[in-house]
Amino acid sequence: MIRMDHATTPSLRTRKVSLSWSTRSTDTTNNFKLTIPDIELSAGDTLLLKGSSGSGKTTILTALAGLMGKIEGKIAVNGTDLYALSGPKRDAYRANLIGVVFQQLNLIPYLTPIANVLLPFTFQRTAGFSDQDLEKRAFDVTSRLGVNRSEMLKQSSSDLSVGQQQRIAIARAVITRPAIVLADEPTAALDDLNRDAFLDLLFETAEGEGAILVMSSHDPAVAERFSQTLDLNRIQTGLEGMV
Fold this sequence. Notes:
Helix content: 25-40%
Number of strands: 10
CATH topology: Rossmann fold
Largest sheet: 5 strands, antiparallel
Radius of gyration: 18 Å
Order of helices and strands: EEEEHEEHEHHHHEHEEH
CATH superfamily: P-loop containing nucleotide triphosphate hydrolases
Number of helices: 8
Number of domains: 1
Distance between the termini: 36 Å
Shape: globular
Oligomer: single chain
CATH architecture: 3-Layer(aba) Sandwich
């Protein structure tokens, strides 16, 4: 059930996590294994997963979201080991406690903006909240992000500007008041000015919701904004550690 509040102080802990994945080309399959340093994050912490293409950034985010079949080690969100849960229970836990901002935003173009923002609630029953309650929550969040009511009620999300679509994507990620917000290279296609504006919104919103923020990027210019950085290129060359 979604309660839209934090039952406990948000936390993310990993212990001895190793991840395996494969990439395929025309005639070869390449297998990779990445062991990451232990992560300890609490409410308000921010972590950048930094590295070149193919270094494992998206794989780590996928694991942190509880979307891998299995892993070596332990990933705990608010004290619960994600991979000790059954598939359906993990899905329910993720829907409540983890929000995601995708690189391509992944808005559904034929839905209204407000329907996109409220989409996470379609995966869970809500406890004690009417449709009006949920819509008010959506309007409150998007208003703080600079999207007005008339824009939220447009016929299609594709009618919005790129900047407005970015705001809708952030609102959708935090609408359930998650413990953790995961963002997969959301600034990759943006110029410097739009990148900085988007990051301002992302940081302010995550902080306002009391959430942990974990983001991946290959852009070195964003690293100084994060309280911690995990450099995957250094891990792959044996220089493990978080800074």
